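Per reviewer request, we include the raw input and output of the structure prediction for the construct analysed in the revised manuscript.
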Amino acid sequence: MTTFTRRNFIQKVAAITGSGYTAMVALDMIPAAPAKPLSLQGQAGKKVIILGAGMAGLASAYQLTKLGYDCTILEARGRAGGRVWTIRPGAKETELNGALQTCRFDEGQFYNAGAMRIPHHHTSVIQYCRELGVPMENFPNTNEGAYYYSEGKGPYSNKRIRQREIHNDIRGYTSEMLAKVMDQSSLDTPLTKEDKEKIIEYLMAEGALDKSKLYKGSPRRGFDVPPGAYSQAGKPAPLPSLVDLLQSGFYDPYFYNIPEYTYEQQNAMLMVSGGTDKLTEAFTKQLGKKITYNAEVTKIYKTENGAKVSYKDTTKGSVHDITGDFCICTIPLPVLSSIEHNFSSNISRAIDLIPHNSACKIGLQFKRRFWEEDDNIFGGISRTNMDITQIVYPSTGYFSKKGVIIGYYNYGSTAERIGNLSLEDREKLALEQGSKIHPQYKTEFESSFSVAWQKVRYSQAGWAMYPQDVRDKYYPALQQAEGNIYFAGDHTSYLTAWIAGAFEAAHQTVKSIHERVQKS
């Protein structure tokens, strides 16, 4: 064993696990990825009104309270968390059109209707879980044993196929084609014009090529400075040449199997153990009576020295006014657009004109976990071109008798269309299309609970969308204080639709307020 070096050990670990990173950390050759808490100094006794007990509002109140600020959170719902919502037995929701549903899952069964997974580089989320004692575990974002199902007219359409088969076949045939191109004598292999167009389209997507069919890097590679709140768009990492990669050994077999290409969606991600609402509960335990529930904000006014907010107690119908030195507004923009305010015109335009995405999920409880017992699928996602788009399998409770899968998770125009269906028709669609992938649906189904975020009161959308022209034109207004009123939420970050976006925006806002107070 005297010749078994650190290099040998790291190489063997990498060959088995796909990465030598953990081995190098264990040997103290590189530091573990940092997850630093927000650290500010000084005390200030100012009063801050926080609108919304979503993740941005909770983090803002938590940090400001530690600095000595007097915080009051107004939350229109009877619960905290916003779009962090774990559906459990007894959960109720009345949609904007009046449709009412109550969750009839068995005790202990749940699914995350909103945020469900956390990338390893969202260190603000990881740090809060660490600081507040919230356990985390792996979320298998990719499972090569899950299925692809392509509805169509091809010879392999309308049948479920393991993802690993498709991945390897496509890569194999693509490699064959490229090899033929390298071998000039094989260029006469017959391909129709349509075949060529499809292959080029695939190569452009697979390789992230530009319109000129050139590779100039993409956000899939990651960042030297990651995207964050306000003006932090992110700084891409330097792009190596092909020769650099070849000479550095990155075409060795260890690096062939790349399960997910994007920066934010890796193979193995993280999740909060037992449901994402456990993180919400940890915050609310710390904040206690600082949160006023069932407080629907009706007016927001900047004043000469602070802010004044009016709200209605939705349980009693009474109206109340509250004033503060500062106000942090985390209310989603589609909701905020209908609230009376005296904001400047550039703020009003941003609130009204930033587009938002629709998003839908449905949880389906089954009598038995047939995806595990019959199909050997443990976590991960099956994907399809049908309206259900994807089926997300639970990553906990393996070998339990029952389970809840996410029968569809879709967004955009598909979600808009499904959200306009009745609750009964949403369930019917999920069961009909899902049974094409899992025939067991028909005999094992028990109950469902669907969420169309664009229909959910006090949310009215999934997340903000920022095409570059919108980001350039309207986003800057939300980064500025409106008098003593600040705006925060994932919509004031480059991490829209992620918990980290809400946290990063909250941290930036807290810093801005505290620095302002310290200078005054």
